[in-house]
Amino acid sequence: MSELFPFAVEHLLSEAEAKKVTEPHWGDLSSVWVSAITEWHSFSEEHRARLSSTPFVPPIVVFGFAQSFAREKFSNRDDDGIILCEGLGVFAFYIERKVLIRFNALARDHIVRQGYQSSDRKELYFRQEPIDGLNNDATRLTAGYLMNEAKTDLASVAISCQVGENLVYTFPIDGSNDSLLPLPTPQTSPSPASAAKPLRKRKPR
Predict the structure, then answer these.
(1) What is the pLDDT of residues 62-95, one digit of tens each?
(2) Which of 26, 33, 78, 114 could form a disulfide with 145 if both were Cys (CB 3.0 to 4.6 A apart)?
(3) How would you class 11 by CB atoms within 10 Å of its CB: exposed for 0-12, middle for 13-18, buried for 19 or more?
């Protein structure tokens, strides 16, 4: 637990409770990010290099793939206690009405950083404050991924709980049991210069 005041976290599920509720879904949650990163690496080296020349573009592409895979994986699973949440503008779902899970990239300290362009609704979400249209009794968790230090590939997948930009707890979900998918083998992202195709010299006529 972080050093937050007790009143800021007393209404949240404990780490042990969050693990118990989410553990049956760790494999599926991990597979969302594994699949998204795999799709990113399916791009040609040239295309990845071009997209990577603008630093915020690759995470957006990966996030888009993750949203699609998450919707495929977790839709129509009411019998598993999974209820979709339509009030956030991104794909999210409740598990047993106890937790609300959304997908995001995590910073090295396992929290979702709020940029200057973050919406008020997103800030309220991560502050664990009431939002109209949501089940505000559910603890809000992030199923997130961390890149390796070189930012070339997936390093780990984890669940985290935060209040504002303070971490309450985090735990890995990508290797705790044999049913989980293995993380993809790290690959080296090419630089734009190395990925550029050489110009062909014209033969003299």
Answers:
(1) 999 999 999 999 999 999 999 999 889 899 999 9
(2) 33
(3) exposed
